[in-house]
Amino acid sequence: MSPGNPSGRRPAHPPETAHGLLDAAFGRPRGPAGTVGGAVMARLNGSQERWAVDRAALCPGERVLVVGPGPGVGLPAAVAAVQPGGRVIAVDPSATMRRAAIRRCAAQIAAGTLEVRDGAAERTGCADATVDAVLSVNNVMLWDRPAGFRELLRVLRPGGRMVLTVHRHVLGIRPERLVTEATGAGFGGVELTLRERRVLGPAVQMLLHHPGN
User: Fold this and answer.
1) How many CB atoms lie within 10 A of CB 199?
2) Taking phi first (over 0 means left), then psi (-120 to 50 degrees means alpha), and beta for anything else, what does residue 179 get?
3) N or C: which end of the chain has fewer CB within 10 A?
């Protein structure tokens, strides 16, 4: 029994401990918690990943940037949509998620149609105007959003498009603020919708365009 704990009981875990576990599992996945979080993401995010690929209307021969692919559950569909002749680049700051995506998509990587590398919305490593489409599923809440929107506009070709979707309950801001930030970065033709779902609650869905012709 310590002087600061006269009851002799173990102190309850402070709130930041639970927050840290959630961050390690879903925010910035790492370690064993990140592995578990990746498995949960792979199971629950499939419909959003498919929606993003479908909404982007990807075409054969296009070059696509996927921001934060997590365990890579949506990457095979994106790769298939741009074949023949297309290529997908996936950037994720989490080494745990990159390893999971590389395992899941080994065939596409071996075929040269997919690259998975370190990166984020704010630092994609892509050259100016080299991407036809950008996809982002459930990670915008982790960005430095003004910097991220500017970077993604930079790498898009004139007339290119970006599809973004995120669980409403993890966004942390009003969805309309995303529109303000995206247009402030230079995006045009921004469409915002809210899709109701029975299990995970509403999904925020956005289609954005590079304003150039």
Assistant:
1) 6
2) alpha
3) C
Residue 8's φ and ψ, nearest 5 degrees, are 80, 0
Mean pLDDT of the chain: 86
Specify if 85 maps to a domain: yes
Return the minimum-mean-pLDDT range out of 25-29, 49-53, 105-109, 199-203.
25-29
3-state secondary structure of 142: helix
The answer to whether position 118 is within a domain reads yes
Domain range for residue 96?
Answer: 45-209
Q: 141: how many CB neighbours lie within 10 A of its CB?
A: 14
Give percent of the chain with pLDDT exceeding 90.
Answer: 75
- CB atoms < 10 A from the CB of 168, how many? 17
Q: How far apart are CA 157 and CA 17, in angstroms?
A: 43
User: Within 10 Å of residue 27's Cβ, how many Cβ atoms?
Assistant: 18
Total domain count, the chain: 1
Sheet harboring 156-167: ordered strands across? Answer: 114-117, 87-91, 63-67, 131-137, 156-167, 203-209, 188-195
* Residue 34 counted as domain residue: no
In the block, residue with structure tokens 């996927």: 66
**Encoded tokens for 144:** 């430095």
- Cα–Cα dist 126/184, whole Å: 21
pLDDT of residue 200: 83
Per-residue pLDDT, 41? 52
Q: What is the CATH number of the domain that holds 50?
A: 3.40.50.150
- Domain assignment present for residue 32? The answer is no
